[in-house]
Amino acid sequence: MQDLIDSLPPLERLAASYAPAATRPLWIGYFALEQRLADAARDGRDAIMIQLRLAWWRDRLAEDATRWPKGEPLLAALGPWNAERAALSALVDGYEALHVGEEGAAPLDEARVGVMAALARLSHVSDMPTVERAAREWRALAPLAAPAPRLPRAMRPLAVLRGMALHGENGTPLGRFLRALRLGLIGR
After folding, report:
1. Alpha helix locations (H) across the chain?
2. What is the pLDDT of residues 81-118, one digit of tens each?
3. Beta carbons within 10 angstroms of residue 54's beta carbon
4. What are phi and psi of 155, to 5 degrees?
5. What's the whole-number mean pLDDT along residues 62-74?
6. What is the C-alpha to C-alpha distance for residues 160 and 187, in angstroms, rounded to an integer?
7. What is the pTM of this model?
8. How far is it, in rounded angstroms, from Cα 31 to Cα 133?
9. Of 104, 95, 8, 103, nearest to 49 (Cα)?
């Protein structure tokens, strides 16, 4: 698991650190899958190669986790997602639509909202409207509403992602870091 954590970009690593210990592996698995899919579908790759790489992930996520190949650390990290594999599979479809289809980023952004809902269900969060609202604002699929939604502790990584997306690269690196700390600590 440490190798997956080390491979994450700084923002995702920081966001995952605010998840409770019980749900942190779910977040790390999600972030690592996003990174792996983004690499598989990166610009400059041939469309056929992108589809082949994404098809492997689609096939794995269509299977029960008990049938996944052993030895792939990311699949092992995604094992707890077994009940919500469909949400992860939608991510694969979103990356394919982004890089091979004509739909643009909309399917991928919708899939990310679905992943946040799945994370909430796996974390036993009952306030789904607040989670969905924050996820839609994070992906700019809904206008920002004031005040920011206060997310449950299990969804603090989403608060960090949403808040940092709202402010973008504005401010100094120290200011952005302090903003991320505040978002992670108080949830909005």
Report:
1. 2-7, 10-17, 24-40, 47-62, 73-78, 85-99, 106-122, 128-138, 156-167, 173-186
2. 999 999 999 999 999 999 887 888 999 999 999 999 99
3. 21
4. -110, 15
5. 93
6. 7
7. 0.91
8. 20
9. 95
